[in-house]
Structure formats: structure tokens, C-alpha cells
Amino acid sequence: MLGSQRAAFDIPREVAYLNAASWSPLPKAVQAAGHEGVARKGQPWRWNAPDHAAQFARARAAAAALIGAAPEDVALISSVGFGVATAAKNLAVPRGSRVILLADDHSAPTLEWMQRAPEGGFVTEAVSPGADGDWTAALLAAIERPGAAPVALASISSVHWSDGGLVDLAAVQAALRREGAALLVDATHHAGILPIDVATLDPDFLIFPTYKWVLGPYGRAFLYVAKRWQQGVPLEQTSYSRKGVAAERAPYFADLSFADGAKRFDMGERDHFISLEMAAVGMEMMARWGQAPIAAHLAMLSRRIAEGVAGLPVTVPVERVRAPHVLSLGFPQGMPEGLIERLAAEDVHVAPRLGRMRISPHVYNDEADADALVAGLRRALG
Question: Fewest beta carbons within 10 Å, which of 143, 176, 268, 326?
Fold first, then answer.
């Protein structure tokens, strides 16, 4: 199990920041990468084409390593929404079919399909779990429901952003394959923390940003594209998405055929070398610490909190259906007014999500942070 990495961050001892699912603090090394990038932008003549290419390759490789992908299958994009829109431009949903979503899932993997459904002649079906909070069982039942319209796609988060419910992607993918349906995964709360191997899972598209769990900046994300979709058309038309559009030589538009691999789907103005290096450094730190040791540390903290709130007027999802790093407390009588703000005033930081309290520790947290939250809840609710 990984020990607390608090020393790698600029977090005062008295602060219990348990809100990585909203924003993670930047490690000191990632901040330093940002400062160095700003200085480079101050003297751009020192940063040339070979440096650009090396930075693209470094970030692509760092993202690929977290999900078991080949770097050439990963595109540099800005957000999960950008990635979903790219997928939607290439993945035709037949009329009369269904797109499976998670109820109250984040807007990023859902709104694109909800917007397209009326004109596209298909329906979206938002799946809700039963009382046990088992998202996987609910998804499998929806996919395999007799008499329902055929399933064309499941566009889902692998960890529900608000309640921390964990989806068994392998089981869902197996069910989708039996139906001839595609799978798009929003791995925002998965990559770097939980095991995922796209070579084995074989999703059609998988996307994750850097500003939460992989300790990077805002506005950076990565899109895995299965090879069967790599002949598609990118969301934005750029020179580097083509094989022969280059300002250095004439003719300018020498070869308009698309570039090979997922890089044809790279975002426009991808040359954010300040944030790109920050993203690479954060992902490389996560890889060095290791997915399994990180998950074990976070599971320990979540378990400590869950046990600590026993006897309080809150509900806790059972461990088998929740992710180890996102713990969502329910309030059968409603969350008390001002509870989140009261905890924040005590320097304990969590998030309200859909009437629940979402607690999301990361590598910088330790037992003292967990105990501070439990003590604050006992003072407020006990």
C-alpha cells in the first residue's frame, strides 16, 4: 500500500482536502513544470519543432501507459466533452435503437446523445441502480431486457461522478458485444486509480482529463480510439491531422489525406506546451506510484471514514458496489443546511453532489485527514 505523499504537495497540515473528484491540488513537481513552461513561452525561440514533437510524444505515452494503450491510439484533446463529440461524429446510431446512459451521470458522456436523439431517431435510456446501488446489475438488465429496442451504444462513466458507484466494465462490454453494440467510457474517475487495459477491454472510445485524479492542469484530456475507428473524420480540421499540410514547404496543401493513427483526432491549437508538460509530469508520477498501491491507500482511507461515521444519521454504500476512492454519504432526512460550509470553515473540504456528500481522498491524504472529517461530522450531526 502506498503511504501518504503529502510532502509532494503544497498542503498545510491543518487542511483536510478530500475533494479530488472536483479538482486535485497540483504536486510541486507539476507546478514547477508549469513555471518552466511559462518561462519557455517567454523565450519561444528556444523551443523548436523537435522539442514540440518530443512533448507530444511524451504526453501521449504517459496517457497511454495509464490505460494499457499504444501511444499511437491516443489523441490529445481538451476535455471529455470534446472526445464524446468526436466519437459522435464518427459513430452512427441507427434509427429505432437505444443509447444506454447512467441516470444522473455527468453531462460530458450524456448530453451529446440526448441532443442528437430526436433528430437521429433513436432514444436514450438512463439506467438507475436498485436500492443496493449496483450500477453494473442495472446496466446488464437494461442491455439484455427482452422486447426492448436494440442497443447501439452505451456511453457511460466507469465510476459514477456523484455517488462513486463502480461499473464492472468487463461484464458490461461482454453484454454489449452480444448485442453488437459499442462502448464509450468516460474514465475520468478511473484512469490512474483503478485497473484498466484497453487492449483487453476493447472499448470503442475511452476518455479521461488530467485535472482530477491524474494530478494535472485543467483543459487537458486524452482520447483512446480503437483502431476500427481510426479511419474517421476529426472534430476539428487541422494541418497536423493531414499527411501533407505544412507551412515550411510548398505546395502548402500537398497531401490532404488524414494522418495515420489517433493523432488525426488531436484538438486544434494542441500546442499548449505549458499545460501539456504539466499533464505529462502528473501522469508519470501516478505511474511511478502504481495503480494498485494507490488504490489500496485510498480504499483504506474510505473504509476508515465509513467505519467512523457508524451510528450517525447517514447512509454509506456497501463496499462491493463503490469505487475505493469516492465515498458518498446519503442523508435520509436531507443534508443539513450549511453542512458543507461548516466543514470547510474547519478546513475539511468535501463536495455536495445531488443531495449527498461526496468524499474523495487522494495520495496526499492520510489518516489524520479522515479522522478530521469524521470528527467534524460527529460535531455537526451527533
Answer: 268
Straight-line distance from the first to the last Cα atom of the chain, in angstroms, rounded to the nearest whole number = 32
Task: Report the distance separating Cα 99 and Cα 94, nearest Å.
Answer: 10
Instruction: Name the 3-class secondary structure at 300.
Output: helix
Cell of 358: 461526496
From the list 247, 208, 205, the residue with the least C-alpha distance to 228 is 205
Q: Judge whether 107 and 101 are in contact, CB under 8 Å.
A: no
Task: Provide the β-strand partners of residue 225.
Answer: 205
Calpha distance 332→129 (Å, rounded): 17
Return phi, psi of residue 130, to 5°. Answer: -75, -170
Q: State how far the Cα of 307 lies from the Cα of 327, in Å rounded to an integer.
A: 12
Q: What is the pLDDT of residue 339?
A: 98
Give the chain's residues under pLDDT 50.
none
Helix (H, G, I), strand (E, B) or coil at 195: coil
Residue 173 is placed in which grid cell? 462490454
Block residue for cell numbers 512533448? 55
What are 148-185's pLDDT values in tens digits?
999 999 999 999 999 999 999 999 999 999 999 999 99
Structure confidence by residue, pLDDT tens digits, 11-27: 999 999 999 999 999 99
Check: CB of residue 229 under 8 Å from CB of residue 89: no
Can you give the C-alpha Rg of the chain in angstroms?
Answer: 22
Number of other residues whose CB lies within 10 A of the CB of residue 379: 11
Contacts by 125-133, CB closer than 8 A, 24 or more apart: 125/98, 125/99, 125/100, 125/101, 126/101, 126/102, 127/100, 127/101, 127/102, 127/103, 128/103, 129/165, 129/321, 132/318, 132/321, 133/163, 133/165, 133/317, 133/318, 133/321, 133/322
Q: Is beta strand 98-102 parallel, antiparallel or unpaired with respect to 123-127?
A: parallel
Q: Is 330:138 a contact under the CB 8 Å cutoff?
A: no
Output the pTM of the full model.
Answer: 0.97
